[in-house]
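Fig. S4 source data, part A: sequence.
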Amino acid sequence: MRRTVIPGFRLSLGITLLYLGVIVLLPLCALILKASDVGLVQLWGILSSPRTLSAIRVTVTMALAATAFNAIYGLLLAWVLARYQFPGKRILDALVDVPFALPTAVAGLALTALLSKNGWFGAPLESLGIQVAYTPLGIAIAMAFTSIPFVVRTVQPVIEDLGTDVEEAGRSLGASDFQILWRVIFPAIFPAFLAGCSLSFARSLGEFGAVIFIAGNQPMKTEIVALLTYIRLEEYNYEAAAAIAVVMLAMAFTMLIVTNAVQAWNLRYLGKGEA
């Protein structure tokens, strides 16, 4: 066996599997077992209730909107940080990680203060007929704020490693800027870009602290799945809370499976996979 800087393969593997089993798999199994306590009829009744369906619709659509925004803005920001030198670059680079370090409840309070009717941004938007706080738009903004670092921090290192020589080679072969971007750069960064967008979407689905302050939490309008699950827990309706949570868990797993499948296909397409 090849010698590594961290000795003890069995010990390292055992610690890894123990952590994965106790911290990750065990709570998920307990959640699924709790949801299975209710019968199929009751489970269908919980999941098909208008309030649950509305919460799922609001959560998924706003998470998609936040991910779409992060995909465009995060890619642009990663490109600027990777390819250009300018005064204040280090400060801008550090600010990207603020949503990671900031407690989500603090982020929610700050966004609500800024985007409420009498806030710095909310007041002028209100005069234009655009209400942000306590609407689905506010939910999308809070989700985008907390999940933007996933796209930037995933794509930025890949762009830095790509270098500028591929662009120069493309230009020397007569390719236009759009052709270089679409046929050379984007395929190279696509797996990282897809992974970043997937993580951004998953984080948006499960966001709670930043959203509840700006959403208004109106049932059938701005109520998200995480809040509905919390409400069911406060009502001591653990089976309903577990059933709703399992739906979100299934959606997250499905998204990760699809993402990995697309990444594997992309690697085979580029000729870098094992197949």
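Fig. S4 source data, part B ends here. The mean pLDDT is 85.
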